[in-house]
Design brief:
The protein is an alpha+beta fold. It contains three helices and four strands; from the N terminus they run βαβααββ. The chain has a four-stranded mixed beta sheet. β1, α1 and β2 form a beta-alpha-beta unit.
């Protein structure tokens, strides 16, 4: 932990329990959204604790829209790993959607839009060979 940055806050608590006296400009969610047992609740909470001008940076596994499109080395690894780990995390409490590592981009985008975000765009990052980058804007 460093005290060099006075305007940043780091937390490892549940996404639906993050509390702050001030609203956030920017929320980062790195490679864990697909593991959450209540992604809809997390999105609703993000909308609640984010400033109107704020956004969420989401980095998730590089999944495609169809099973056929996931027939590649990365898709095979994620398909094998997801039921053993990711889906187990997501289903340990029966609340929301269990996404797993192969959550289609449109599924993630639709969840954010249904949760009150005006947009959820995919940001091209050619160097990210196993992940996809999303930016969801509140307004």
């Amino acid at each position: 932990k460093s005290n060099d940055c006075e305007n940043a806050e780091f937390t490892t608590e549940s996404a639906v329990n993050v509390a702050s006296e001030e609203k956030f400009d920017f929320i980062c969610v790195f490679d864990c959204f697909h593991d959450m047992n209540d992604p809809e609740g997390a999105i609703a909470h993000f909308a609640e604790i984010l400033k109107d001008s704020g956004c969420v940076l989401l980095i998730e596994p590089l999944a495609s829209e169809t099973i056929k499109q996931n027939e590649n080395v990365v898709g095979q690894i994620y398909s094998g790993f997801s039921p053993i780990c990711c889906l187990q995390c997501a289903k340990h409490e029966s609340k929301g959607t269990a996404l797993g590592t192969l959550a289609a981009p449109s599924t993630i985008q639709n969840l954010f839009k249904a949760g009150g975000f005006s947009s959820c765009d995919i940001i091209p990052v050619p160097e990210a060979q196993v992940n996809r980058v999303f930016v969801a804007k509140k307004k």
